[in-house]
Design goal:
heterodimer, A: alpha+beta, Penicillin-binding protein 2a (Domain 2), Beta-lactamase, 3 domains, B: two-stranded antiparallel sheet, about 70% helix, about 0% strand
């Protein structure tokens, strides 16, 4: 063997590098053991470190004018520190007397919580101040028991916009599994619905912690040397596009309706002003322990109050959907505003059967505008035959149906737009079905399903000249100590409609509210021109569902309104809700931008 | 003719370290079966060592690409498994951590590639090829997420490229964007770094076509990094910081670090004595059999014990470098260096983590930590090194 020098240059340099790294490593260990050894020895012998978590207050949820929709109030949480807590008869008796918790409950909580043996396990939440002060006075009687301030949600407006706002609850196992890598931990509260869920990451902030040196008795010695406390970062406030005034008024208007939907939106950017899904629920329920009977009611499969019908309910759109065919026909050169087809005598014979118009007596000889205004089914049956099913499903899909609107509060249903392939599959080949299905589809019946938010989005696009905006309920995220984050409007497409088609649609919708024999006459307002369309959807499980969707002012729309009443018989009858809301909107409460 | 020489120093040091490991695991929990398990692993490791010793190095060379394919399949298989921390592969009858084997396979793959292109190491084709070769497994382990193993991959790549003959200046240029980003924490260190970079490039007469892009990229990163850092939110910063250093998380790894430092530091100079570690026995220290075994050593045997183990490691690395220096050809030299970086990097990152100066990455301490995969692959590496030693400069 040669001398210790390395023959190869790269090895020599590697050797130098290794030596330096090793010396540094050794130096640090020597420092810890020889210089700081006493300090660490003391810590190891007689002291322990306790981490006291400091819960970050959750961000508030604020309406577009700054009114607080969801706030926090401080409550006390009593926790045990597994390492310091020694189960004895006396302390168990004391805890039971003070907090009313049993040994069994404590065991259960201990089993569930505690990532390390030092992180506190909550055993009683929302304890009142008096109880806490009793504990504070006799701290030495409760070794390993601590209390912390825990912010809890308050909802000054109870059930207003409940589905849009959503609620929070303790994280469950599947959620924890999904969010574990993002730093969520057992015992955390997370959003379960609506904004609370979709914007949970912003709202939750970051929990901080205090490092304390503690004696065996639980007495605090002081902060731990060389270990800075972790700063608590409060959650970001979320500014919604919801307007409390409009929301409250909409809630009042919808109060008598068992099951239904109300949506008011800004067609120029997709912001939602008000969103009601009936039946609703009181958000305050979720701040307390929920009893079994209430839980059963909330999860009732029949009425399903937690379901946001605006985004998750799917319905046949009925006549409100005729505009897809109408505008398609204009652009394909099949019809213009004055086109008259075969007169309506209450029904039309196609294939092997009669297809009826809703008006038994018939609408006579109408043009396209009148057909929209009076919602003449026979006229649209004929247009449908010219347009064909392929073009119709294409137009439907391009108009935003059959796909998610990408509203910022998932989940949402996709709805369903049938096409040729679907019928081929269902009826086994081309010969199994006739053109009759498309007659039904054209008037918004049959297999076609839309969510209320899709339909509102579609009417927003008609109102704004063809731009499809993704609906959203959040305008702004305001983190503490940082610049606000504006949630920009999101454009997800353009209506497959020419300017002329849109003009005719608008004209038809104006006539449908204000014209001769208008189906939506109940929506008329004295000073503002309202445009809109009614719909009456056949419901195989009961009475017909009623729709009204429209916008105002018709010449330059600022607000789109959608109403759905499940089993409401006839859309025309509920148009008055739109009228009342729009009257309120224009005369009392026009929202600022 | 085959030389039957054995590097006794290397063998004995490795065995000593493994035995110390078993001893430490015994002190942590004498009644549990952990230490007997580790002893069995050592037995398996010895078998692996003899296998590596006997397989001619040209076999490894010829199937280098097959190794690479196995590596990707192994890592990919872990990724598609369910579970929160994806580091284990369960084959039913046996479960192991593929990332430990992946490191050795990586060395063979890069070795094959660089040896095939040994005459054109300085060309962009080869450099980029080697980086891409590393990038795939790097990305997979990063996604697990396993920052430690991905850093080992980087270390393997850099040391092997260097051994293959890459100029120091080229290494500097390759590392410079990263250095620029890191030094940009404040403008003063960055300015110093930037001036140094220009001077070095100038005096090494780097040609202009390379000089300019390097300077522009470094300048851009130096300006952009703080700007981006400032514009992102606090919580985003925090997420990046926690990713780089899980010790910031007060309830998870942060607690381990404090306890580990207490255990280590409280050993003071002489240690608390065999089986007398209070921190260990009171179960204060999490993961004490595995990742934090060095703290167990520190508490019971103090600075003396730590110094002995560090010295053993130092001898081990010195021997590895000597074996590399005397290796018969470039291929075996690169393998020796690559394997050496696995052990060196593992040791330094682990001990650094235990003593609180490096992020918590979950890399085991080679030879000492409880864990079959790690011990077996470390012993396999010793076998490889013995093989290279036996066929050293004096061989055929």
């Amino acid at each position: 063997m040669k001398s210790s020098r390395f023959g190869i240059k790269s090895n020599r340099y590697i050797f130098y590098t290794l030596s330096v790294v090793f010396l540094l490593l050794f130096g640090n260990i020597a420092y810890l053991q020889a210089v700081k050894g006493d300090y660490y020895y003391r810590l190891s012998e007689s002291n322990r470190i306790r981490i006291v978590p400091k819960k970050a207050p959750r961000g508030r949820i604020i309406d577009r004018r700054g009114k607080v929709l969801v706030d926090n109030r401080p409550t006390y949480t009593i926790s045990l520190i597994p390492f310091e807590f020694r189960k004895s008869k006396e302390i168990l008796a004391r805890l039971e007397k003070l907090l009313g918790i049993t040994e069994e409950q404590i065991d259960k909580a201990m089993e569930k919580g505690g990532i390390t043996r030092y992180s506190p396990v909550p055993v009683a939440r929302q304890v009142d101040f008096e109880t806490v002060s009793i504990m504070q006075e006799h701290l030495l009687d409760y070794p390993g028991v601590i209390y912390q301030i825990d912010p809890v949600r308050v909802y000054p407006w109870k059930s207003h916009a409940a589905h849009a706002i959503g609620y929070v609850g303790e994280i469950n196992v599947p959620e924890l599994r999904a969010l574990y890598t993002k730093g969520y931990k057992a015992g955390d509260f997370v959003g379960k619905l609506g904004i609370e869920k979709a914007y949970d990451w912003f709202l939750r902030g970051r929990d901080g912690a205090e490092y304390l040196e503690v004696r065996v008795t639980g007495e605090v010695v002081g902060p731990v040397e060389g270990r800075a406390n972790i700063l608590t970062i409060p959650g970001a406030d979320i500014v919604t596009s919801i307007d409390l005034g409009l929301q409250a008024y909409a809630e009042t208007l919808m109060a008598g309706i068992d099951r239904g939907v109300f949506i008011a939106m800004d067609p120029t950017n997709g912001e939602i002003y008000a969103m009601v899904s009936r039946p609703s629920f009181d958000l305050e329920l979720f701040t307390r322990t929920i009893t079994d009977s209430i839980w059963r009611l909330l999860n009732d499969t029949e009425i399903h109050p937690l379901l946001n019908r605006c985004t998750q309910g799917t319905y046949p759109p009925a006549s409100t959907y005729k505009l897809v065919t109408a505008m398609g026909a204009v652009d394909e050169g099949i019809a213009n505003a004055n086109t008259r087809l075969e007169a309506c005598h209450g029904s039309i014979f196609y294939g092997d059967r009669w297809f009826r118009c809703w008006s038994r007596g018939g609408h006579g000889n109408v043009n396209l505008i009148e057909a929209i205004a009076q919602s003449c089914d026979v006229y649209f049956y004929q247009l449908a035959l010219y347009l064909g099913i392929d073009r119709w499903s294409e137009l439907s899909k391009e108009s935003g149906f059959g796909r998610k609107t990408e509203i910022d509060i998932p989940p949402e249903a996709t709805g369903f737009v049938p096409d040729r392939e679907f019928f081929n599959r269902r009826f086994g080949g081309r010969s199994g079905w006739g053109g009759g299905v498309q007659l039904n589809l054209t008037i918004g019946q049959g297999e076609l399903l839309v969510t209320p938010i899709q339909l509102a989005q579609y009417y927003c696009a008609i109102a704004n000249g063809g731009t499809i905006y993704s609906p959203k309920v959040v305008k702004e995220i305001r983190p503490p100590m940082d610049r606000p984050l504006i949630v920009e409007p999101k454009i997800t497409g353009r209506l497959p409609a020419s300017r002329e088609a849109l003009r005719i649609a608008n004209k038809g919708l104006i006539e449908a509210v204000n014209g001769h024999l208008a189906t939506g006459a109940w929506a008329q307002l004295p000073d503002v021109v309202v445009a809109g369309k009614t719909g009456t959807a056949q419901n195989p499980h009961g009475h017909d569902h009623a729709w009204f969707v429209g916008y105002a002012p018709a010449e330059s729309p600022r607000v789109v309104v959608l109403i759905l009443v499940e089993q409401g018989y006839s859309g025309g009858a509920w148009a008055y809700i739109a009228r009342d809301f729009l009257w309120y909107y224009f005369n009392i409460y026009e929202p600022r931008a | 003719m085959m030389r039957t020489a054995i590097d006794w120093t290397l063998l004995i040091v490795a065995l000593l370290l493994a035995v110390i490991g078993i001893l430490l695991i015994y002190t942590v929990s004498p009644t549990s079966r952990f230490w007997t398990k580790q002893a069995i692993y050592l037995g398996v490791g010895l078998v692996a060592m003899f296998i590596a010793w006997r397989i001619p190095m040209r076999v490894h060379y010829s199937i280098g690409w097959i190794y690479y394919a196995i590596l990707i399949v192994l890592l990919g298989a872990v990724l598609v498994q369910s579970g929160e921390v994806k580091r284990w592969l369960n084959l039913g009858f046996v479960s192991f951590q593929p990332s430990e084997f992946a490191k050795v396979l990586m060395v063979f793959a890069i070795g094959r590639f660089l040896y095939d292109h040994k005459r054109e190491i300085e060309t962009p084709k080869v450099i980029i090829g080697a980086i891409l070769l590393t990038a795939v497994p790097f990305a997979i382990v990063m996604g697990q997420p396993d920052l430690g193993t991905s850093m080992v991959f980087t270390a393997i790549l850099v040391t092997m490229l260097y051994t293959a003959g890459l100029q120091e200046i080229t290494l500097l240029i390759l590392a410079s964007p990263f250095l620029s980003m890191v030094s940009a924490v404040h403008w003063i260190p960055w300015a110093i770094y930037f001036v140094l970079l220009i001077l070095i490039l100038w005096f090494t007469r780097t040609r202009l076509a390379l000089f300019l892009p390097v300077i522009i990229v470094n300048l851009a990163l130096g300006v952009l990094t703080p700007a981006i850092w400032r514009s992102i939110h606090d919580y985003q910063k925090e997420r990046i910081l926690v990713f780089l250093d899980p010790g910031r998380d007060p309830f998870g790894a942060g607690y381990q670090i404090i306890q580990s430092k207490i255990a280590l530091g409280s050993g003071q100079f002489w240690g608390k004595g065999f089986m007398a570690g209070t921190q260990v026995n009171l179960a204060f220290l999490p993961a004490r059999h595995t990742d934090f075994i060095f703290a167990v050593l520190g508490e019971q045997f103090g600075l003396i014990g730590c110094t002995i183990v560090l010295a053993l490691f130092a001898v081990l690395f010195y021997r590895i470098l000597r074996i590399a220096d005397e290796a018969r050809n470039l291929y075996t030299r690169m393998i020796a260096i690559g394997c050496g970086s696995i052990l060196f990097f593992g040791a330094v990152v682990n001990i650094g983590m235990v003593s609180g100066v490096m992020p918590v990455t979950g890399l085991p301490l080679p030879f000492l930590s409880l864990g079959g995969t790690s011990l077996i692959s470390s012993m396999f590496i010793i076998g490889l090194l013995q093989n290279i030693y036996a066929h050293g400069v004096e061989g055929p």
